[in-house]
## 1
Amino acid sequence: MSQVVLLESKKRLIQTLMQRSILLPPAFIQKLDESSISKLISRLDDSSLPPVSSSSELLQVLRPDWTTQKSIQQQSSSAVPQSQSSPSSFDPYKAGSPCPGRSHPHPVAVDVDLGDAGDRQRARMESGEFKVRVVSDYNEKPKKREMTDFVAYFNARYKALEGILRGRSELSGVISISRVLQKKGKEKISIIGMVMEKTVTPNTQSVILSLEDPTGTVRVLFSKKNPDIYAAVKDVCEDEVVGVIGSTGGSSDNPIIFGNNLLVPDVPLTKELKKAPMDHPGYAAFISDIHVGSKQFMEDNFLKMVHWLKGTAGNEAQRALASQVKYLFIGGDLVDGVGIYPGQEEDLAIKDIYVQYQRVSELIAQLPESIKIIMIPGNHDAMRLNEPQPSLYKDICKPVWDLPNAMLVSNPTVVNIHGNESFGGFDVLMYHGYSFDYYVANVESIRTNGGYDRADLIMKYLLQRRHLAPAHTSTPYIPDSARDPLIISNVPDFFLTGHIHRTRVSSYRNVTLINGGCWQDITAFQIKTGHTPEPCRVSLMDLHSREVRLLRF
């Protein structure tokens, strides 16, 4: 009977852990007794204590029972069957080991303490002639979020974007909405507000925006008499921050502004086109969406790129070009992941997430160590979907973290490359692009001018808004009460994205826009949706001329 009770307790623990998205190693759970299980569940359910948000925090609850973290790991490994722990068995951290599917002795999503591995990694990347420096990164510790965090988050967004808009000469006379509501008669005004609602009225052929600022709300009507402004207003999405120039109207009971112009934060026309000095040459390569683990991952093509970068493939001119590549940017979705969508197992060649990342590390390890590799996560990687996503988890992706020339950063992130004593370098904004689907579906000018085939239009749209996901529903996000990490505070020199599997290179106001394409052939889902990927492309930029070549492998 005691064994039945213990089994039920373990089931209850697993259900509790799953509800909180926390996973513990099966071998570790197998070792727990009734007392330890009760202690863990009580700690999870105790609302008076700080919330547990990771497996490592939960394991600390049992430290009085096991004096050190090392002893906990020993308890876990001792429960592994001998057939799995033998020297000939599978080891996801050892290159070339066979994969036995899901069954392996390693813990699932238990934090591994790498000490100052991240600091050492960044120190390596910031050294040498060709430096990589992190300008903006997000790796805040998870914590419980309250309703007040959402309010503070949107207030922080409004304040930041309002500051950018106030820098526009057209909005030098901005007043608050509360002052607008006090005005009588017709008077020219300018305001800044966040879009609460957008209504298109087909009968009168006009668009009405409901705007709010910290002092109040007001409606703004744009008619079709000015086609350019009307088209711009139709592309507005809810929750973005805009400036409006117009005139007051309506009655005291029903005030309205008749809009004459709409302004977005945008990229200044004075944005400098930076170019590396002649005596500091180099190339940067941009790719994305590798999807290792998928049956459709085009490994042979990927290896062609690897061999080219190693200088072992191509003609003399192509090998000479490869020798000048100093940086490789990877825009997320290193792996296809596990459990990303229903029935995904049928599409996987590698069904173990540890093995997927092991294979990624084996492929990337073949690249010359002289090439600095900068990687962000995507929605297929093994981590939270909410943005900003932190850098890839060290416990699951340890083989990738161990690569000597790799830098793993958050999504989004800004890094500076190629700087020296006389040149400030280039700022590179990296964002995987999970919000892109929303804007393809909801912004008319994008949808009717190519949709998924025109990543550059989406990137231009987001640059104009100075935000990577301005609409509340465009991506799941973390409401940071101090700031909105998805704001494009400083205009980058290069804007790299991925996600939609279509390579695209363009420019907007001296910002180079690059979508990194993919290394995955067309999937059954893409066939159903009519989406055609464009795999095995590398965008290669000459950092002196800023010219971009598109290489096909």
## 2
Amino acid sequence: MPLKLIDAVMSADGFRSYFKGLESWSSWCVLFKVLSGEALTAAELEVFKHHTGRAAAPTFRIRELYVCAGRRSGKSTVAGLLCAFYSIWGGWSEHLAAGERARIFLVSPTLAQGQVVRGYTLGMIRSNKKLWRFVKREARDSLEISDVTVEIKAASWRSTKGFTVGLLILEELSAWRFEDIAANQDTEIYTSLVPSMLTIPNSLVVGISTPFARDGLLWRKFNANWGKVDSSILSWRGCSWEMNKTLNEKALRDQYFEELGPAAFGAEFEAKFREDMETFLPLEIVNAAIVKGRSILAPDPALTYFGFADPSEGLRKGGDSFAFSVGHNAQAGGHIIIDGVYEWPAPFSPKIVLEQLAGLCANYGLAEIVQDRYAVAWIAADLEAFGVQVRVAEESKSALYEKFALLMNKGEVELPDIPRLRSQLLGLMRTLSGGATVSVDHVRGGHDDCANVAAGCAVGLLGKRQTARKGTVYYVGMRSRPAGKRLSEDFKGKPRTVSDEEARAFTVGAPGKVGLALQKPSAGVPVGQVPAAAPKPMPGSVGRVFVSRGKSKQETSTWIREMLAGRAYSPDDGPPDKTPKK
């Protein structure tokens, strides 16, 4: 005979032997009775009102349940109970086609956390020898129990369609966005799987978590349905000591309140969403800045780049990564373009990382980079051996992030399409600490190495936007010349006056075509425009534009000779004041 959820907990035919000391589960049992459609006693009704904000218990089926409970309150055990109960007594078989299996999806921040719940599920079934026969197959990330398959997934999983789902458990929902998971992954999994539950009349969605910031699916669902008597979506909130009667409120306050502070203690143990924290960058702003399909831009010798590093010693697995970002200012439109974000996850060999970083600096023509203000300082001496100077950022990380947010809000930054960068940007939180101090950082246990270097690079480039300075432009066909032949003979066309930024945008088109073509659209300049007085390139030559800034033709010729000999081009360089003696 099928059991109800509360019966499975209370009865020897269910999991009663597993729940020793059942009195400590009294608050949970009130919730189990509501899910079972059982009437509540007067005392139980008061407990229900306290935990839901509702004036009366529902007389209809609950379709979705969102539980915010403090730490050590038994959330994972309850998730395991729901998997065990519905896989045996869900009663879904009559709604399935011949040969079809119903699915239970248990989605946790990581697969390891989901496997903890898997252990609880098997433990409950094995606590009753009469139920052992229902377990058909055990795998690392799935269980076959009766005619139901329990799928255990990490929150980074991209859900698939085509299943019939009877139970969806979203465990530790508030932590998903801080585990290098897409910030809206909770919503994506929810919206993709809920339609798969339509043909199961008693299907159930359960979000169960310790709360955190006022953002995401858990907050939206919980807040929208708290205290609403007529809603089939139930919000439930309980402190650690209310849901687990073996915990002592005073002992927890004495041990953790001063250490964590009121806001963190309220979230961790009192199941309160934090009011001192808010999401730093909205999803829409971050998505608008990302150039889809572009993970990196190759170096362009005609551009001037800026590099920002967030070093790490790389000693501990799972610790901070070594990260580096490089970018440039677009010639048109005022955009800041982040060309690439490079990450070396810990553990790593510092020697190898620095060699690779020096190679990147060489490729992008960087003789100097800036490092995070609070990062380890050992890279300066080591990179100097490769000809790269390291300067420490003048502003704190929080200050850089605040300036970065202004640029993002104005749509002035182009970011590469790197999932880890996107996830870290969306995981940043603005926190109000003691007094009026505001800080921006990742949450405890999270990372922001990629986000930090992208922000530092963008803000660094903000200070390097150049004003238009006038100078004479010479168009030079660059190819090997016989010894002693004056390079000034390659000057073609009538010089004209342009700004540095305009000059840096020019490059010679294909041999045989008249004129100079502009850079690709990725550099912010439209294709197809040809500057005035553009010469016909010499066959097989490569051209470049040089700005003389009023120097004589002889001085400019000497300067160009040095450039062709291998000196890196910089728009801030000009020809020498005096022609070197021969």
